[in-house]
Amino acid sequence: MSDALINGLAGAGGGIIAQLITYPLQTVNTRQQTERYLKKEKRKLGAIDRMSQVVNQEGWTQLYGGLTPSLVGTAASQGVYYYFYQIFRNKAEAAALEHRNKGVGDGSVGMLSSLVVAALSGCINVLLTNPIWVIVTRMQTHTKKSQPSHPQSIDSDEAVLAAVEPPPYGTSHAIQEVYGEAGVSGFWKGVLPTLIMVSNPSIQFMLYETLLKKLKQRRALNNKDNNGITALEIFLLGALAKLGATVGTYPLLARLQAKQVSGGDKRHHYKGTLDAIMKMVRYEGFYGFYKGMSTKIVQSVLAAAVLFMIKEELVRGARWLLTKDASNAVRSKPP
């Protein structure tokens, strides 16, 4: 099994676990990002209040709306990202060693090279998995329709119909809705800002690799017999890297992927990325770009820290098993 495939599978596994742990916060953050209110309106709910509101009005299961496609998307996204990241990383490391042999550099991958590796991996990931995340966002922002407030004012047949629970909003409904609005191109809605936001994981991985390199160097100097990195240290490095990336690159992606307002107030209908930016600045102010940022920081930092930690442990375990199997195979060969 190739090193890239090991990292890809480990990334998918780590992403699934991180997603399960932090999904309610992700749902709340998506709701906060897609709330449409103007500058003069003061309807601002924190993460806990927003979560309580969803549970009270729609049920606790709605906090996990879109979980299934989200898990599929996470596994695919992290698997693709880490697979190509390892391929490009191996090439960057080989180039760095070649340069060292020529008397240039110390043989390690620099910050700029790490940034390029992460950016290339991110672009491939976005183009392949964007349709999944459009569906996930649509399901997260879907709200149940409220029942009539005065059922006594309708006849008996209508009362029976009103009492029937509406069919659940599933993946197929979201797919049909997106296709009905914009056709096939609708599944790549928001792909431009998403490609721009590749800078987030690029900065994250650049910071992570730089911090990891520094820690290994310090560990090697202080204790030459043990320069290994613990799971807790990986967790903390991942959290710091994601915190730095998130603060600098908070996205407006969810606003573009959410269901568009087809009628009424045109101030909340976006024709594209530039139109969304202009209308958000004009009608909502610059605060509109940072809705739910505190929730996003908690969710994304925790998810990234868990992902890095689980992924590295899975990689170590897989390499240990492969090495053990290889050693057993050598010992079992007849002399």
UniProtKB/TrEMBL annotation:
Solcar repeats: 2-91, 109-214, 229-317
Membrane topology: Multi-pass membrane protein
Name of the protein described by the UniProt record: Peroxisomal nicotinamide adenine dinucleotide carrier
PROSITE patterns documented for this protein: SOLCAR
Family statement: Belongs to the mitochondrial carrier (TC 2.A.29) family.
One of the GO biological process terms: nucleotide transport
Keyword Transcription belongs to the record: no
Transmembrane stretches, start-end: 109-136, 229-253
Compartments, as annotated in UniProt: Membrane
